[in-house]
Amino acid sequence: MNRMKKALGLALILTLTLVLALAPAAAQDVPTLTVGFAQEPDSMNGFYTSMAFAQWANDLVQASLWDIADTLESVPVLVDEIPSVENGGISEDYMTYTIKLKPGLMWSDGTPLTSDDLVFTFQMVMDPANNMLQASSIRDALVSVEAVDETTFTLTFNSPKPFPEDMAGSPGLSTILPAHIFRPVYESEGSIEFADENQDPTVFSGPYVLSEWRRGESMTFEANPNYIVGQPQIGRVIIRFFPDTDTQYAALEAGQLDFVPNISEGDKPRIAGFEGVSQLTVFGGYIESLWLNVRTEEAPRAGHPALQDLRVRQAIRYALNRQAISDDLLAGTVSPTDSIYAGSPFEDPNLGVTPHDAAAAVALLDEAGWVDSNGDGVRDKDGVELMLRYSTTNAGWRNNIQAVVQQQLAQVGVGTILEAYPASEFFGAWANNGINAVGEYDIAQYANNTALTNPANVTVYEALNCEQIPGESNPGGQNFTGFCSPEMDAFAQTTLTSLDAAERLDAAYGIQAIMKEQAPLINLFPRGDNYAYVTARFAETPRVGSGVGNQWFDILNWQLSG
Amino acid sequence: MTQFIFRRLLQAIPLLFIISFVLFAFTNALGDPLAVFAESRQRPSAAEREMLVRRLGLDRPIFEQYLVWLVGNDWMLVDVRGDGSVMEPGTRKGVLRGDLGLSFVTRKPAWTRIEERLPMTLTLMVPAYIITVVLAIGIGVYSSIRQYSLTDNVITGLSFFFYSMPIFFIALLTIYIFGVQFPRWNLPGLPIGGTGNGSFPDLLVHMLMPVFCLVAIQLAGYVRFIRSSMLDVLNQDYIRTAHAKGLSENRVVQRHAFKNASLPLVTLIGLDLPFLLAGAVVTERIFAWPGMGRLFIESFERADVPVMMAILMLLCLLVVAFQLLTDVVYTWFDPRIRY
Q1: Rounded distance, CA A442 to CA A433, Å?
Q2: Most buried residue, A30, A145, A319, B178, by CB count within 10 Å?
Q3: Which of B26, B27, B42, B169 has the highest number of chain A CBs within 10 A, making it the mutation to test binding with A?
Q4: What is the CATH number of the domain that holds B240?
Q5: What whole-number distance in Å separates Cα of residue B104 and Cα of residue A516?
Q6: What is the pLDDT of residues A272-325, one digit of tens each?
Q7: Mind giving me the DSSP string for B225-285?
Q8: For A285, which of B41, B179, B180 is closest by C-beta distance?
């Protein structure tokens, strides 16, 4: 009997505990936005991370001098006016910027945010002892930084810099360091690389402060009362980490998350089926592409000899039905493009898109001498089969595209061997025998950067540059395709250095024409930055910044309903 | 006994050295820690990547990297900035002096990352394991003394049903039913992912689904093991003698059968216990549980060698320690065993 009573008592306690726990949580004292991240930030100092999620978390708490809006226009944040030649903020020779902060700016702890903080930040960027991963373009260009008064400072460069957004403001300099926190660390240790503030920040310049970081679990942000630019209407933002996208989407579907960034193109059709969930897409700055290995050096591996022939490369593009890939796998949410500037203001509107034309592909392959002489269904020439190694990362949506591309190429007699690798192996360096770096592929699928707010396109001036072809003498080279066009390199240089906007645009158009003609890579589709949100939680559709800049650029105006 | 323990500990030392080198070579071959920059918007230049590689010592031969991991680099000059401009003695002390290295990802000590995750792994794994073992003993013993009864057959069938289910499937199914569908049926839905708001009741609620999945998957194996072990013992002559002496069924089962059937169970538990600290890779990932299993996978994806090595070596040490402990516990269960 006693045993029975004990069991009953235990059951009662357990039930009560559960009921208490399951009872609806007390109403939130402040409007709270719950966001799902697929990865946990690795640093809260923007100079020490290349992770998009870390940058997004940082952007909540660190204000930039100015942001890039969803329309790709610059929006002042900590400055009243973005420097330009017209307003005198940029010298006629584009070598000196004078930037004036808004008066009365404060850090979250009440300390004034002044030009001293900006000068200190640029000094930290310039000092190699700090080993910063980011801001290399600033480091390479900056000669000096000086405070003029409490709110004004000047930057002097070693050459003309026609794009202020590359040097200051988001995305060039999206982190401003609190000098009163970092300077003592720098003075005592000679570097801020291992400062506690990088991992556990305490002082902030942006609309929120990080109030709690439960490692592996969540980050909680509260409105920053000392942010004089404005007060967000959403008082609290909680970012929860979901390493498994299925779980993350289940939480979104169940209404336990309000907002989820970084939805892959492959997942958009699935989320479209969630009741009460909307999606939005902004300019992402990436183009998913098939990179063709045209390297000729046998060591460590040359690309397939067929890819040396321009007609074969063009035939592959004709053979691809990119619209079908979009329709069948991505719910028609993306459109094919041949422009390496797709979606940016520098896209050549007259470039056109290569249509799917299997007959043209067949004709080009025949003309190039690749025919199926042994009747095995795969073309060959001089005893070499046209069988291409087609590699990508092990992301599921990419592997689905691989399977469809394989079928499409098979229809014109081009065989493929599909390979998928972990990203750390696929993108590994030469020394690590990275698949891309050592050319262990014929077709590699991954995203290239398109142009951002200016026509200088890193894919062109680095990943397709003649001098960047990797080899024993240049193991750090970044041109993994091996494509070389001195004419395109000259255009790329013009986009980087010309002070004439029209000349830069012409150069961008020239690059697009060469890329389309030579086809060292085949663009599949521009990848947007995709977001999903619970429709009923928002008073109106939130404006989200493009991936180029700050996705929260408009968060002061976001409003939750109810 | 002391001699035995001492001898076993001595034997473990070369073993751990060999294992550590093999693991170090494997983890270093997993990929490039800098590959994460490949598709980032503001990637460092090629020259900066090279500097970073040199600074981290990743350009050195694997034996030299292992030596630095083992004994540190404060006795040698290292390329502090990666460009050859500053050569200074290193700051690492090496694993033998308690320095597990800095995480490539967070630039914090690898041990700090483990410390952050270990408590939550134990919070999930220990209750799940205790529930599993307790239920398995009850069900396994009952199943053995009612062999081939309807209950035994049902339990056996259910055991195999859950045993044959992949953990990711049962986990996602649980989330879908209790997290997504329950609210639609106007039932209280369970929270999806994480450990809650920090309160104990909320933690318990967040534990329900992952613990259920872990128990469901592990239970079958243990039940079958205990049942089989009990059946072996129940057929022994001394059990028949105990019955003949007129002892009650309970007393025979508890005092004579179960204690003797426990010896193989102790071995099994001894083998399993270290892995409680390793966490459950799939369960933690799916339920967004901030534990060691997830940390290992995250480190694997970023080729964060110091953290991976710290976790693996911790496991190796625990396996050795628990095996030793198991041998010691044997003497309590079976007084005939002497070392």
Answers
A1: 16
A2: A319
A3: B42
A4: 1.10.3720.10
A5: 40
A6: 999 999 999 888 888 999 999 999 987 788 999 999 999 999 999 999 999 999
A7: HHHHHHHHHHTSHHHHHHHHTT--HHHIIIIIIIHHHHHHHHHHHHHHHHHHHH--HHHHH
A8: B41
Q: Which H/E stretch holds residue A245? A: helix A245-253
Pairwise CB contact (< 8 Å): A133 & B201: no
Band of residue A19 on the pLDDT scale cut at 50, 70, 90: very low
Residue B46 pLDDT > 80, yes or no? no
Distance separating the N- and C-terminal Cα atoms of chain A: 53
CB < 8 Å to A429, chain B: 32, 34-35, 49, 53
B93 and B122, same structural domain?
Answer: no
pLDDT of residue A344: 85
My answer on whether B80 and B190 are in the same domain is no
Q: Which of B86, B103, B120 is the last residue of a domain?
A: B103
Number of domains in chain B: 2
> Would you give the end-to-end CA distance of chain B in angstroms?
6
Same domain assignment for residues B98 and B223: no
| In a domain? residue B193 | yes
A199 part of contact set with chain B, CB < 8 Å: yes
Residues B220 and B80 in one domain: no
Average pLDDT, chain B: 87
* CB distance B267 to B319 below 8 Å: no
The pLDDT of residue B50 is above 80:
no
Q: A360 vs chain B: nearest CA distance in angstroms?
A: 33
CA distance A505 to A451: 11
Which band of pLDDT confidence, cut at 50, 70 and 90, is reported for residue B36? low
- Give chain B positions within 8 Å (CB) of A43: 106-107
Domains defined along chain A, listed by start: 32-241 (3.40.190.10), 284-528 (3.10.105.10)
> CB of B335 within 8 Å of any CB in chain A?
no
Question: What ipTM score was computed for the predicted complex, to two decimals?
Answer: 0.85
Q: What is the pLDDT of residues A369-378, one digit of tens each?
A: 999 999 999 9
- The residues with which B108 forms a beta bridge, in sequence order, are none
Which B residues 175-194 touch A at CB under 8 Å?
Answer: 175-176, 179-180, 183, 188-189, 191-194
Q: Which of A2-11, A345-354, B12-21 has the lowest mean pLDDT?
A: A2-11
Q: Do A434 and B35 touch (CB under 8 A)?
A: yes
C-alpha A376/C-alpha A336 separation (Å) is: 31
Same domain? For B175 and B266 the reply is: yes
| Cβ within 8 Å, pair B202-A21 | yes
Chains A, B: CB pairs < 8 Å: 192
Which of A131, A247, A427 lies nearest to residue B286, judging by beta carbons?
A: A247
Instruction: Determine contact: B43 vs chain A, CB below 8 A.
Output: yes
Q: Which two tokens stand for residue B264?
A: 């193989």
Same domain, B177 and B233: yes
Mean pLDDT within B42-69:
80
Q: State the residue range of the domain holding B186.
A: 110-333
What the block records as the tokens of A186 is: 């720098």
pLDDT tens profile A316-355: 999 999 999 999 888 888 899 999 998 888 999 999 999 9
Same domain, B99 and B115: no
- Candidates A177, A169, A39; CA nearest to A548 is A169
Judge if B50 and B126 occupy the same domain. Answer: no
Mean pLDDT of B287-291: 95
Q: Mark which residues 301-320 of A lie under 8 Å from B by CB.
A: none
Enumerate residues 299 to 328 of chain B having a beta carbon within 8 A of any beta carbon in chain A. 301-303
A360: enclosing H helix or E strand: helix A358-367
A216 touches chain B (CB under 8 A): yes
